[in-house]
């Protein structure tokens, strides 16, 4: 019995030591549930719907609380006031990118999404400036989106009003828009390279939304020693980067410094300008990571919102009818929608905003991190601590959006039917690390959705009351359920 007793005592001591280290390490962190040794609070969280768990914790511990994912603490911020404080008022202090081991494996801490410090600041500033120069928010990018909208309509006409799954077609359009900005050309919807890229993007978004990926991020040691879908995600990402490297080499061979064609050319010119600068952030590796970030984020997020939006319009036929009535009145059937139309189309504008609010694409934002020791609400949050901001708690605030669980464009209309802005509208986050492509995504969603509804009636073969709009996954992002519909030409 003595060896068994020694083993039990040893394990007990280790558990007590772990608990003591975690509790003492919390210092002046916000309160939260007591973490278990090694696993933290992960067993107390519904990894299939993390937002719901956060809401339940906030009822017990208030709008700011601490959770442990494994051994590492994360401060969770819940509710509009708290989210605005940390992302806007303390934007610089919380401008770091939180730890995400799977993503870090993919881009080695480079690019604009998961980089930090000087790397992030320089690459973000360059990316924003270059995208603006290529027409982000200006006429030229609008022309590109309108061109893609016309191509999308032609593809949808080819379905001849028959039942189809719109996933692939709706993925192509936003991806082609960002491709025209970074590669200087769009793809034919049947191009083999394009088909391959779309397949890998769609597969990775699904993988990232599995509970297993949340476990891998909490226990990164699993990445090296266990098989699983994370291996497939890393392989897909490597193949996407390989294709982008091929395009970069082509650009390098045909580069005209005086006439940049696209984002890659601009980056190559910047690399040439800084080739003698020590420790320049503009390297081939940074170029690959940044272009990959723009391509992946610019393709998947907008296409998923577009797909979810059509599902909502398919279910809520009364909303679709009002949008079509407004389109017919302002635009007609034969002219392409343009951004100038939006100010004269309050109901359509409200509908696009409500789609983004209701879809709540990235419910808990991409994690931030403290760049220094931060004093916040009588707590001390140590440098490097992960910060999770619940965008769900803002987009679904019942005081700002009555009956927030109901899809209703009226959330963005005043009593006279005019469009009503809301500070709570944060689908792209807010503050210093808000989405680089916000202006582009907003323009795409308005023009693409309006063009589709202008040209087609959406028809479901099942009763609208039986159409389920509950997301398939609620971990990293909201993935709409699979569905089929008919695009009936108007």
From TrEMBL:
Please provide, in alphabetical order, the Gene Ontology terms of the cellular component aspect for this entry.
endoplasmic reticulum membrane
Similarity remark:
Belongs to the cytochrome P450 family.
Gene name linked to the record? LOC102914213
PANTHER family per record: CYTOCHROME P450 2C18, CYTOCHROME P450 508A4-RELATED
Presence of the UniProt keyword Heme in the record = yes
Name of this protein: unspecific monooxygenase
Principal subcellular localisation of the protein: endoplasmic reticulum
InterPro entries linked: Cyt_P450, Cyt_P450_CS, Cyt_P450_E_grp-I, Cyt_P450_sf, Cytochrome_P450_fam2
